[in-house]
Design a protein that fits this description.
By secondary structure, the chain is an alpha+beta fold. It is built from 48 helices and 23 strands. The strands form seven sheets. Strands 17, 18, 19, 20, 21, 22 and 23 form a seven-stranded antiparallel sheet that branches. Strands 13-12-11-16-15-14 form a six-stranded antiparallel sheet, with helices on both faces. A two-stranded antiparallel ribbon has the order 1-2.
Length: about 1500
Amino acid sequence: MLFPPQNNGKEDKEEEQDSKQDAKDSKQDAKDSKQDAKDSKQDAKDSKQDAKDSKQDAKEKSPNPQNAPAAEPSSLVEEESKDDMKPQVDNIRKDPKELHLRAEGKLQTPINSSTPVSSALTEQQPVSGSLLQSETPGPSQCPQTFKNTTFTKPAKVIFTIDENEQTSKTPPPWKKNLTERLQARSHVMEQRMLELESLRQEQERKSAKRLPDDDLGREWLNTDRLTLATRAYLLDKLLPTLVPGVEQMLMQIEKRKILSQADIPTKFDPINYLGEYLMRNNTNYIKDQEMSGYQRVMKDVTEELKVHVPDTIGNRVSRMKEKVKEKREQREYISTVKVQVASVRKQALEEQFSEWVLNTKGMIPIAVIQNVLNDFFQKPDLHLESHSEDLIIMNTMEPGFTQEQFVQYISSHIADLKSEVFEELLKHLCHSAEEFREIVKGVMRRQMFADLFLQCDTGKVRVLHRQRTLALLEAFYDQSSQTTRSLLRNPRQWPFVEFEEIELTEFWGDTDIKKHIYEDFDELLLQMKTLATRKLVGQGHEKEQQRREIKHAQQRGSAAEQGYSTSSTAEQAQQRGSAAEQEPLTGQEPNRDYEAESLRGSVAEDDSRRGSVEESEQRRMSAARQRKRSSVDSGSFKGSETGGRRGSTGHRKGSGRKWSASDYRPRRESVTEDSHQAQPTPPTGSALEEPEAGSASQSQEGGATKEKQEEAPTASKSDRPLGGSKKERPADKACEPKTQHIEGKFWSGEFFISDWKTKHSRSEDEEQAKIICGDPRFADLHGIIRNIQTYKEIKGRSAFSLTSLNLLQFVQLLETFVGEDTPLRVSQNLISFFQKNYSETKQEKMRALEQARQNAFRVRKELLLEALFQKWDNDGSGFLDLNEVDELLHTYKEGMEKESMKKAKLHIQFPKQQSGCEVKLSSKQFQNYIELVVSELRGNEDQVLENVVEFLMCSLNRTHTEGLRNCARRKWLHHIQHAAQTSGVSLEPVYFETFRALTQDAEAHGNKKISAHISLLEENQLLPTRGDVLLRNVACTLDDAPYVLNKALYRDMQGISFTVVDEGKPIHVPQVQHHGNIFFWNQSRSKSEQNGSFLALPLQDANMRIFGVLAVDTLRDPQEVNIFLPHEISFYQGVANAFSTAYHYVHSREHILHTVLTGIRWLFSITSGISSVTTCFIEPSSEQEDYVLRSTMVTDSLGLAEILTRSPVISRKTCVFRDFLFKCIDTSDVVLASAGGETHIVIPIRQRTGEAMGVLDVNIGRSRMLVFQEYKDLQKMMKMIQNVADELLGELSGEIKKNEVIEMERSGEVRRAGVLFFRAMLQELRECLDTLTPMDFVSLLIYEHKPPLDSQGMDPQELEANVALVHDFLKGVILFSQQDIGPLRDLEEWQKWKFYINKNLVKDLCVFDPTASNVRVNVQLVSRYIQDHSRTEVWKFGNLVIELLYHWINICLILIELKNKKDGSIIPPLPRKSETSISQKISKKSLSTES
């Protein structure tokens, strides 16, 4: 039973007093509410009265509406007017002229709706007094109030008010009063509610104090799901009233003593009492009933139970609160972790800052850190390319970062990176700091070499003699010690000596490894491989013996556990013994040859320095062992070596199948002494970090290697000293603390990676252009010369010369000689040697000065004549009329030099003149003509040239309009050439710019709407009856695309295009509707719409051969008269000429790229030391840089080429750590460099002028250099690529005629490009074979009877293999020259083959064409003879004739296979053109706007 708590008497009195006080408060609240109602009614009445009064006042005080609008009489309006006037006052202050006019009364301000009435009345009064005084009213201007309206006295200054505020309505005053009263009343009510709430809380506290909580109510708290909903409902709706009722009922029963007098009847009915109590205390009608302690606890329990009842508001709110709390805690935790991580990262970056080389101010260049982050974000495995978009790399190296700025800048770019990525970033920063140290060292070395150049250049001609420089390098190399020579590079070899300076027989047949760029490189490599192989074999035998002992111990049977322990102990002892025995074996070679030891030590130091950029020494050892294991486990093969340094197991020439054109795809050959020997990685400290190639090994050796790898940890543990501490893994050498000095020298802070050329080189073109622009005689040419310099976007390249070196080339030559790993003292010794020995005679100095003067005059002459040509060719046609030029030249000196000019005309070859046609001179022909004229005139050549140019310039009168038109047209023509230079190997941008130039000129200078399309000639193979060739529409403007694009025009169809092709001159049809021989591509056009002009222009190459037609018409022009004017026709001829130049420019790059890919595949088929080759072409830069590079093709180690269509450009500012590409372009020389622990051989592809147009970046991995055989084969590939590039570029410029050596070259340009590399190689091999004498073949014929002297100690098996090699290659050559040879059964004996080796054999080989249609060679038989002989075997044989025959036979087999394949097999792997023409991407908007 429930009983109420017992209270004492004091508490009852306090309760009675509180109840009385509550009653008084309730009465007072009722009175206050009544008073508030009265006040609200009175306020409503007052607001209505205020509205009436304001309307009445407005009617009484409003002026004539014709004079001014009604004013707003409230004080609020006055304040708003002042606020509106403030910005106008500021405007008057800012404009002194307006202030002056207002002061004089000349400037009036209009009146708008918000201007006060009094101000409007004084509008015509002049402004007087200070502006600031008139802005603020004085004491006499204080407002006067009348009731609720305020009037302001007239102001002295009238201000313009915004027109938008004229229409705004000012709120009436009654509304403001009402708002203020309501706000005051709401504030009072809010205060009252707060007081009531505080009173209620005070009462609850008193009640809780009087009636404490009864914990018995906690028994209702039960979260059982079965009764949860019911219990919550009862506690919420019924029990709070029922429990007190039951208590009262029990109290009445106890008071009436009903239970003690159960036998006495009573009128008290408990049920009725309880029902009456429930009715009297119904919660719907009684509010704020006082609760007992039991009820309060029950209420709290109810609230707790509601939270657990599903699908209720309390439950949802509770869950939301829990989620909010959880997320808040999670955010707080994440914030805490972020703060901790940020603190740790900040500390790590602060420590990293000390690893960098700082300048004198203690700062790091900003551009360097930006390059580091950019390189890190560009790593493909991290997928952080989007982060590099926020990096804006600076062009200068002047500003730098302090430690705090360094941490802040890096932290801002890596805030969202994970911890693993941040660790990678720290490693990258550490390695970059080490690389930056090497870069600074290189900068210091380059500065020393630059100062040396300036000292040697005593004549100040800015060039030094190349041959004398090479001779001094050779002398310094010869007198250096063996240790120093091991670090230097041999100046008698390539790249110091160019291909043209090497004899053909030496270039193709020299196999002397002593002539490697690194002296004794191959011998040291072979020694290290042999040493490592012996170790591996010895450990394999020891391991096999240990395994036998273990097996024997296990078979004893009695004590297996004891046997196991005994065998393991013996195994460890044997391993320790074998390790002890191997130590003296390792040291034998170095003790024998001190110089070899010093070389290995120095090279090991260099390689460890390069290797530390990527990983520590232990990691390199582990990776090397892993590569060795994969190489050994690759299996054994018959014949010569298989596999490669990357685990390739492709077929070799000794693999048992024929070698054909398909074989110059991925194949590998190792260069080792014996094919059965494995090539494990030498230990750290050897001459090479890794072997050049991993040859196949026997299976037992592979097993021994595996077991050695598995048990290596056991041996290392046993060798550990007892009781010693655990040996820690050595840290990365790149991350060890570094000093701020480099070899005792501190960095001055100068950094010439970006501004080296700006400081140390100058362009002759720019200097001469400045001189001409400063000469007032050529004022009319100044603008044209500036445009020429602007449009010359690719600048800063040095042309290669066999006789001279400029500053950049001299510095690069010396840097290549000393290498990157030599100490600075070696460079200082070299500088001292040059200072003592480099000298020039007086005659040489005079000759150099004269050469410099002639060079300056040549550049000046070209600029003047080019500017004169452009001024003369005002319409941009690209040609001048010879007769017009002669007429003007004959008036020079009033015709006194007419005879001299006629003599000059006899020495120049003009284009063939057709009957009735004028002779056209191109820019180059015009320059040659003027040069011959100047040479025939008397006087100083420089002065005569300037006089002739000045005379011709003054004789040409051009109006200002013509000059502007010429400038615009030159710009559009330049855009066509720029599109070709930046398009990679695609013609679509060229088509786009061509059509845009035509459309823009027609709209700007002809007021026409034109249509255009380009047709190219194709061989008609499908329908030869309709003509040998056809014209294919390859591109057109957008509107004509559905009717013109990809359509073909045959000779038997209407049209004048083939007439243009045949005659080679443009044809203009003013009215096509009256011509009768015009073919309309849009057949749906009615005859009435076939009204307009048509112009067809021939597209010619440099040799004046027609390859297509450019057609322009005005059929879509709505005007009736729309014929083409002469200046328009001339400009369209210039567009056709510019398109032809751009077209052949792109195709020349296509053919060069195809040749490069062919050469790389050939090289990869016979070498294994090259990891990848990247081909880059030079492009003009859109920023303030000389040029940029675009990576066009990447060929991996398997020979698979990837053509990069949308690759980003490579700028100089983003290549602080990989600037070797730009060094190669700047100097046009080969650059040997290392980056990221990998060695790069960067080779330029030169133009005919000697400037570089692209580079090949040959990556040879971690090796210091290729072995001599691979190094020579790389030279062969580059020489062939350069020869083909010279030929293609010469044909493009018209300097040389097309040379077709083999029959396959006549099958089309694409097929010709696919075989040019092999044709160039075949051509050189013919020249080499032609130099052979009969005695060279006699020595081969008697080789089996009288071997050379150097082969006396040779193994009989090897001697027999050499004899077979000689016989097989001679048989293969005979099969090519003697195609009608007898049956095979008659040729089994070697004596019968000897009769075919005579004096005519070499002649037959020199004229043999493998692609001729009448050639029938037994390819299978030839392949059977040579397929068992690998490239390594031929190289090691070391005979010039066999070396030449090897290459000659294989090249012939490749060409024969290419001839037999379909046309599609040699299509260059260029980017696939879009299926739709570029015209479909041109919009009218883009055509009408200039770029």
